[in-house]
Design goal:
360 residues, alpha/beta, 14 strands, 35% helix, 16% strand, binds pyridoxal-5'-phosphate
């Protein structure tokens, strides 16, 4: 067996310890004689998997009691629709457009009501987070929406916009569990798990209870209502049993690492190694504004698309895979999520130094 260093943005690297544990349990989960893939979602065995996963997530994120944890299929794109469908009471919301995912969410919301862009960093090619200090939001706004970590561009919010009593909704897909967050600052936090938590198949929505409405338009499909998930413990229909099991294992691994404070330290350390090298390199150039740099997705270019291509190919041959930037922006991106060990980042930097020498 030979493993590579996988810098994919998602689905992405998972902790080896977790994969080994899952492999060991594959044929016979805890003496049941069945794989977790084969057990009923109505069984006591599965109920304890989902209950423990939720309890561990609550511990990790310090989630207040007045927030529900909901497991929803359909990934990030379904949340783009569920947020406006469930939250638009006055039919209006504000979006801060910091990248493709925020923009897609904004476009989707326009189907259901008036969604305006309170700020937009597309003129800067999404290389920064716009300054929102001068914006006052309208009391009639049902929510303000941000994408916390912009996976494609390598930027992240480090200071939240002030929205007063208006619920702040954040897509945390690519920074989920990378550092502590004050959940009480948000109306909804949601993230697809396939970036920094587990295998693809589910998004976790952490929703403040007063935002879970039962007075929605009856035409809204049952599976698109947060209250369906809240009132059934996310078991209205068959959930992605195996994905939830794997997320639960990752939560336990994170607790063992020392929780989110410890993860933040490790992630800062890894990111600093890479950014410090990029800042000193004459060949590679980081693309995100320094103040808005992401700890999770590090974007850079050489300025020469042919050389970028050569770099990605040679890196792959050296066991450093999935370093190609998003298909819409080109260049390179190293996603250094929780499960990427420091050794992987060090190995990448050694390789980049050598490449720089050879291609100067
Ligand atoms: C990947 C990603 C999405 C899209 O997720 P899907 O599950 O593929 O729909 C949305 N937001 C962010 C921040 C992402 O990184």
């Amino acid at each position: 067996m030979s493993r590579v260093y996988n810098f994919s943005a998602g689905p992405a690297v998972l902790p080896e310890e977790v994969l080994k544990e899952a492999a060991a349990e594959m044929m016979d989960y805890r003496g049941s004689g069945m794989s977790v893939m084969e057990i009923s979602h109505r069984s006591a065995l599965f109920q304890s998997i989902i209950d423990e996963a939720e309890a561990d997530l609550r511990t990790l994120m310090n989630i207040p009691d007045n927030y529900k944890v909901l497991w929803v299929q359909g990934g990030g794109h379904l949340q783009f629709a569920m947020v406006p469908l469930n939250l638009m009471k006055n039919g209006r919301a504000e979006y801060i457009v910091t990248g493709q995912w925020a923009k897609k969410a904004w476009k989707e919301a326009q189907k259901y009501g008036s969604a305006s862009a309170a700020a937009d960093s597309s003129p800067q090619n999404f290389s920064c987070i716009p300054d929102c200090s001068g914006i006052t939001f309208d009391k009639k706004d049902d929510y303000v929406y941000i994408c916390m970590n912009n996976t494609i561009y390598g930027t992240a919010w480090h200071t939240l916009p002030e929205t007063g009593d208006i619920p702040l909704v954040a897509d945390i897909s690519s920074c989920f569990l990378s550092e502590p967050l004050d959940v009480s600052r948000f109306g909804i936090l949601w993230g697809g798990v396939q970036k920094n938590v587990g295998p693809a198949g589910v998004a976790i929505a952490i929703v403040r209870e007063d935002l879970i409405r039962s007075d929605l338009d009856e035409k809204i499909p049952t599976m698109l209502r947060y209250d369906t998930y809240a009132s059934s413990g996310s078991l209205y229909n068959t959930p992605p049993v195996y994905t939830i099991y794997m997320c639960g294992k990752v939560f336990k691994w994170l607790l063992k690492q020392g929780g989110l404070e410890a993860m933040k330290q490790k992630n800062e350390e890894k990111a600093a190694l890479l950014y410090d090298y990029l800042d000193s390199s004459t060949l590679f150039h980081p693309t995100a504004a320094v103040k808005d740099r992401s700890l999770m997705n590090v974007t850079f270019v050489t300025g020469n698309p042919e050389l970028d291509k050569k770099f990605v190919q040679e890196a792959e041959a050296a066991g450093l895979v999935n370093l190609k930037g998003h298909r819409t922006v080109g260049g390179m991106r190293a996603s250094i999520y929780n499960a990427m060990p420091k050794e992987g980042v060090e190995e990448l930097i050694r390789f980049m130094r050598r490449f720089e020498e050879e291609n100067a």
